[in-house]
Amino acid sequence: MKNLSLYFFPECPFCQKVLKFIDENDIKNIEFLDIKKDEKNKEALIEKGGKNQVPALLHDGEILYESDDIIDYLKKNK
Ligand SMILES: N[C@@H](CCC(=O)N[C@@H](CS)C(=O)NCC(=O)O)C(=O)O
Question: What pLDDT does residue 3 have?
Fold first, then answer.
């Protein structure tokens, strides 16, 4: 599976849902980018995806928003 990046912040319940799925399915090839811890991550998310909404998954140079869509993508691509 290719490398993926997940934009998130820990207090976000939709992020927690995706993080739980990643943990339960032992998915390892994801880099985690906290948008509250580092302003640069937030700026990069807005630049790539156009909005400051998390969770957001970067794959193939594109940003995928919506926790359910991210989980579907991970199910199909893991
Ligand atoms: N329907 C979205 C909801 C995501 C959501 O509301 N995220 C919040 C943080 S918990 C957020 O980023 N809000 C800022 C915004 O939407 O601009 C999902 O399931 O991923």
Answer: 85
